[in-house]
Amino acid sequence: MSPDFGKLVLRVGFGGMMLTHGWPKAVNLVSDWGTVEFADPLGIGSTASLILTVFAELICALSVLIGYKTRLASIPLIITMLIAALVIHGPDPLAKKELALLYLSGYVAIAIMGPGKWSLDKK
User: Fold this and answer.
1) Residue 120 and residue 123: Cα distance in Å, rounded?
2) Model's pTM, two decimal places?
3) 118 within a domain of the structure (yes/no)
């Protein structure tokens, strides 16, 4: 097995699983446009926070999955998972933060290693 195969598995796994979080948020954004109820950890408004989260969890996750601009696409995902773990779930026990921390570690690894040769970036 090559390291590039491992990078492919990591990208497809983390990118694909994050889509399951981003898609429902995108549906929520479109269906409840005027009455969005979402956390506002940055103080920019619930709608703006939801838009940024959907961008990261849907658009950037898809980009990571297919290996297009992978390192750049990992940055919003890293920031989103940092906010989820440290701000949204900051006072919660580790069990509540665990998923965000797991995603964070995966996206940091992807950002460090790059997409591999089986990607649109082909690096």
Assistant:
1) 9
2) 0.94
3) no
